[in-house]
UniProtKB/TrEMBL annotation:
The lineage of its organism: Bacteria, Pseudomonadati, Spirochaetota, Spirochaetia, Spirochaetales. InterPro entries: CheB-like, CheB_C, CheY-like_superfamily, Sig_transdc_resp-reg_Me-estase, Sig_transdc_resp-reg_receiver. Keywords: Chemotaxis, Cytoplasm, Hydrolase, Phosphoprotein. One of its GO terms (molecular function) is protein-glutamine glutaminase activity. This is Protein-glutamate methylesterase/protein-glutamine glutaminase. One of its GO terms (biological process) is chemotaxis. The modification 4-aspartylphosphate is found at D56. Coiled coil: none annotated. It comes from Treponema succinifaciens (strain ATCC 33096 / DSM 2489 / 6091).
Length: 396
C-alpha cells in the first residue's frame, strides 16, 4: 500500500503542527512537508511531489490566492484544498479560490484552534482521501477507497469520545486496527442493479433536480458552463456545502453559466431557465401552487447526515412532478439522494448518474445505480450534453 502524500501550507506553526498530526496519525496518509507561505510551497513541490496540498488563504509574502494564480500559470494539476479561518467570513475569497482551480475547502473552527481543530479532522481526512487519493491512483499508486479512510476517522472519533466519557474499556481494544485497512476496501464491491418497473412512461420534462456532494463545486462549474443557453427548464440543486457559502457559490456559477443562478429563498417561484442552489443548512422542497410551483426551505433534522439533503429534494419532486422530471445524481460520499432518486425513477422520471471514472467519490451515484435508480451513467464531460439533449427532446 502507498501513502497519500500531503503538503501543508499555513503561516501558523501551531496549525501546521496540528494538521500534520491529524494526517500522520491516519494510516495511508503522510505529511511529506510543510510551508509557511505559497512561495515556499512552490519551491518544495518539485522535490516533495505531493498528491494534495492543504492551503491557507491569508499568508505573508504569497497568499493562497496568489499561489493558485501561479499554480494555474505553471499548469500544475496537484489538487488543492483550502483550509482557512477566514473562509466563513470571506466566502467570496473562498469562491475565488475555487474559480482559480482549488478542488474544495474546509473551514477552520472558531474559538481555540488547538482545542477545536479535532472537530474538523474527519472533514480533513475525507477531502484528502477524495481528491488526493484520486490523484495518487491516477499516477499509479495503490491507494484505498475514500470510504476506507472515512471509516478509520469515524472509529478514531468514537474511540476519543469513549475515552472522554470514561467508557473506553467497553470498546474492543483491537477495534481500530481490525477495522481499518482491510484489503477488500481497495476495490469497491459491485452489485448488479435492482430492477425498477416505473409506474408510468417518462413524460415531458418540467424540472431538473440535481444532488451532489464531494467533488461538486468543480463538477457543477463544468456542467453549468456547457448548458445550452436555450435550456428551457428550471434546475434545483442540492450541493452539500456549509451555511454562509452557497450565496457566493451561486454567484460564482452565475458568472460562467448561460442561465441565471441564484441561492434559493423560501417561496421562490420556480421559473424556466433558472437555477436554484439550496442554501447551506436548509433543505429545499417543491410545493405545489396554483399559478406556479414554489420552493420551500426547511430546517428539519439532518437526513443521511446532511442538511440540505438530496433525498428531501428528490422526494418532493417525485411527489409533485412524478414522470415529468429529470433527476441527476453526481459525485459524492455516502448515499444521500440514492433512495429518493429510485422513487423518482419508480414514478417514471428520467434519471442520470455520474460514472465512476469521472467521480471524485463514486458513493452517491454508485448506491443509486445499484438501487436501479439510474437509467444511464454519464461521464462528467458529457453530463451537460446529455441534459441538454434530454430537455431539448423531451421538454416540449
Amino acid at each position: 500500500m502507498d501513502n497519500i502524500e500531503v503538503l501543508v501550507c499555513d503561516d501558523s506553526a501551531l496549525m501546521r503542527n496540528l494538521i500534520s498530526r491529524i494526517v500522520d496519525e491516519t494510516e495511508g496518509m503522510n505529511v511529506c512537508g510543510t510551508a509557511m507561505n505559497g512561495k515556499f510551497a512552490l519551491q518544495k513541490i518539485p522535490f516533495l511531489k505531493p498528491d494534495l496540498i492543504l492551503l491557507d488563504i491569508e499568508m505573508p509574502e504569497m497568499t493562497g490566492v496568489q499561489f493558485l494564480e501561479e499554480r494555474k500559470k505553471r499548469g500544475m494539476d496537484i489538487p488543492v484544498v483550502i483550509l482557512s479561518s477566514i473562509a466563513t467570513k470571506g466566502a467570496a475569497v473562498t469562491m475565488q479560490c475555487l474559480e482559480l482551480g482549488a478542488s474544495d475547502f474546509i473551514t477552520k473552527p472558531s474559538g481555540s484552534i488547538s482545542s477545536n481543530i479535532a472537530s474538523v479532522s474527519s472533514a480533513i481526512i475525507e477531502k484528502i482521501a477524495s481528491y488526493g487519493g484520486k490523484y495518487a491512483r491516477k499516477n499509479g499508486k495503490n491507494i484505498p477507497l475514500t470510504e476506507t479512510f472515512v471509516k478509520q476517522a469515524k472509529l478514531r472519533e468514537a474511540e476519543a469520545a469513549a475515552k472522554k466519557e470514561g467508557i473506553i474499556d467497553k470498546i474492543a481494544p483491537a477495534a481500530l486496527s481490525q477495522e481499518t485497512f482491510s484489503p477488500v476496501l481497495f476495490t469497491s464491491k459491485r452489485k448488479e442493479p435492482e430492477v425498477i418497473v416505473p409506474l408510468r412512461e417518462p413524460g415531458r420534462i418540467e424540472v431538473v433536480a440535481i444532488g451532489i456532494s464531494t467533488g461538486g463545486p468543480n463538477a457543477l462549474r463544468e456542467v453549468f458552463a456547457h448548458l445550452d443557453p436555450k435550456f428551457s427548464r428550471p434546475i434545483l440543486v442540492v450541493q452539500h456545502m456549509p451555511a454562509g457559502f452557497t450565496k457566493e457559490f451561486a454567484a460564482s456559477l452565475d458568472k460562467i453559466c448561460p442561465l441565471s443562478v441564484k441561492e434559493a429563498e423560501d417561496r421562490d417561484e420556480i421559473h424556466p431557465g433558472q437555477i436554484y442552489i439550496a442554501p447551506g443548512n436548509f433543505h429545499i422542497v417543491v410545493e405545489k401552487s396554483t399559478l406556479c410551483n414554489v420552493i420551500r426551505l426547511s430546517s428539519a433534522d439532518l437526513r443521511n447526515g446532511h442538511r440540505p439533503s438530496a433525498d428531501w429534494l428528490f422526494e418532493s419532486v417525485a411527489k409533485i412532478y412524478q414522470n415529468r422530471a429529470l433527476g441527476v445524481i453526481m459525485t459524492g460520499m455516502g448515499r444521500d439522494g440514492a433512495v429518493q432518486l429510485a422513487e423518482m425513477r419508480k414514478q417514471g422520471a428520467w434519471t442520470l448518474g455520474q460514472d465512476e471514472e469521472s467521480s471524485v467519490v463514486y458513493g452517491m451515484p454508485r448506491v443509486a445505480y445499484e438501487l436501479g435508480a439510474v437509467q444511464k451513467q454519464v461521464s462528467l464531460e458529457n453530463m451537460a450534453n446529455e441534459m441538454n439533449t434530454l430537455v431539448r427532446e423531451h421538454g416540449k
